[in-house]
Design goal:
Chain lengths: 244, 234
């Protein structure tokens, strides 16, 4: 138990010391948030609603990024540099190692949520009811798990360069087409149709619903759980093949 | 004497190549054993099987009478491998703290630092930014973190200068005096002669000699055909 806590602690420390994390997962979303709610005139009639809506977009954008990129690329790095092999020599079991990393990453998600929410409050004075803050936060935290599974799929790649290239493309494509940068109702119809099948859209959609006073659609649950299962099965079967 | 390691008729094949071919030996508690041989002789493959990192294709291998992958075994061994880089974004001291937490009875931080001669500067530096020699020293500390009874060093002194090399062997002698069992691979005859009481000589995946209290040069003269180019390289 002590080992798991120590591992978690150091995983969290390592993520915060990573300049890419701080830039991509904290600085960029907050900057985007500032630009699209203050500088660019979006012409949205209800500014208060837009500010809350876009805060959710940027929170999910931030969390999705660190789930796919941090988690996955780091796994590839440890694999290629021989560290994972070295870990096998210790009495610390690999399931515990993996769970500590996963748990550490979830704590990072929670901290990111708090930081981006706080930025929204400070920048625009976004006002939501206490239950809306809490439920949207919980939604973003829990619904980030399928993206961790996607991260672990990235983690099965052989080279750090491939992993970071591929995960960058996936991340940006998911964010843009999923409506995290621009709401999908501004898209042409065929793109809207695609978006509705993406996990990123449903990740955002659940949080958008909560701040608009409703709750996440059942489709969102279904699609996110579906993706979670697909990503997990893929990651596990690839890993099995590699170890065989 | 109690045998700590038992290797029975172990073979390891990678596809069509046989890296280790029907090898058997036992290693007793408290002994220091050098596994000597030219590059590609099967030294690292054998060590990797003893460490449970590779599965033998045939044969059986136990440490402390158990499978090398058992947690109880892992708690009692330590190793320095070739080509391991250290985890990034952590300082030397933090990596040690992390590693100590994995073991049931770790060495205390103070002991670990004094045994391995890590200084304050190295402990404060980013672990993956340490110089080659400093990294090796950290690797040595990681191998000792769990206060193991059995230690494996795979080519521990490659790339070290004479002082660092002497330093390393002094520490190993100290471990020996504490009753620890030490197994190392090397392709320096001198190191095998000076720091082990037993030499297991590998060539082409087989043990061609296994001698106690015997100089490696004498062993070589007895077993190897002088024309063997691999043995000549030693």
């Amino acid at each position: 138990m002590n080992a798991i806590l120590t591992q978690c602690k150091f995983e969290i420390i390592r993520i915060f010391r990573n300049p890419y994390f701080v830039f991509w997962s904290l600085f960029m979303p907050i900057l985007f948030y500032f630009i699209f709610t203050n500088i660019v005139n979006t012409g949205v009639p209800d500014q208060g609603e837009w500010q809350a809506y876009y805060l959710m977009s940027m929170t999910t954008f931030s969390v999705m990024g660190s789930a796919i990129m941090n988690f996955g690329i780091r796994m590839v790095q440890e694999q290629t540099e021989g560290w994972s092999t070295f870990m096998k020599l210790t009495p610390f079991p690999s399931w515990a190692y993996f769970s500590s990393k996963m748990f550490g990453q979830l704590i990072i998600h929670l901290l990111s949520i708090v930081i981006v929410f706080l930025a929204g409050y400070l920048i625009n004075g976004v006002s939501l009811s206490v239950s809306q803050w809490i439920f949207s936060g919980i939604w973003v935290l829990i619904a980030s798990i399928p993206f961790l599974a996607l991260g672990s799929l990235v983690g099965t790649m052989k080279k750090v360069e491939t992993a970071s290239g591929v995960s960058n493309i996936i991340y940006l494509a998911l964010a843009i087409v999923g409506g995290m940068w621009m709401p999908i109702n501004t898209f042409p119809t065929f793109l809207q149709n695609i978006a509705e099948w993406l996990p990123s859209y449903h990740f955002g959609s659940g949080a958008w619903n909560i701040v608009q006073g409703t709750s996440p659609d059942w489709q969102s649950y279904l699609i996110l759980i579906g993706y979670l299962i697909i990503f997990l099965l893929l990651a596990v079967s690839i890993r099995r093949k590699q170890e065989a | 004497m109690q045998s700590l390691i038992q290797v029975n008729n172990v073979t390891k094949r990678f596809g069509k190549t046989t890296a280790v071919n029907n090898v058997s030996f036992t290693i007793e508690k408290g002994s220091t054993v050098a596994i000597l041989g030219p590059n590609g002789a099967g030294k690292t493959t054998t060590i990797s099987m003893m460490l449970g990192l590779l599965e033998p294709t045939e044969g059986r291998l136990t440490l402390f009478s158990e499978d090398p992958k058992e947690v109880a075994v892992r708690n009692r061994i330590g190793a320095m491998l070739q080509e391991v880089s250290v985890i990034d974004k952590l300082r030397g001291r933090e990596v040690l703290e992390l590693f100590r937490s994995y073991y049931t009875n770790p060495l205390s931080m103070e002991e670990l630092i004094s045994v391995t001669g890590l200084n304050d500067e190295m402990l404060k530096k980013w672990a993956n930014k340490l110089s080659g020699g400093q990294k090796r020293r950290l690797g040595f500390a990681l191998a000792l973190a769990g206060n193991p009874d059995l230690l494996f060093f795979d080519e521990p002194t490659v790339g070290l200068d004479i002082t660092a090399r002497r330093n390393f062997w002094e520490k190993v002698n100290m471990l020996k005096e504490q009753g620890k069992t030490v197994i190392f691979t090397t392709h320096y005859l001198q190191e095998a002669d000076d720091f082990s009481e037993r030499i297991i000589l590998f060539n082409n995946g087989e043990i061609i000699a296994d001698g106690r209290q015997m100089k490696s040069s004498i062993m070589l003269r007895h077993v190897a055909s002088p024309s063997d180019p691999a043995i000549k390289m030693l």
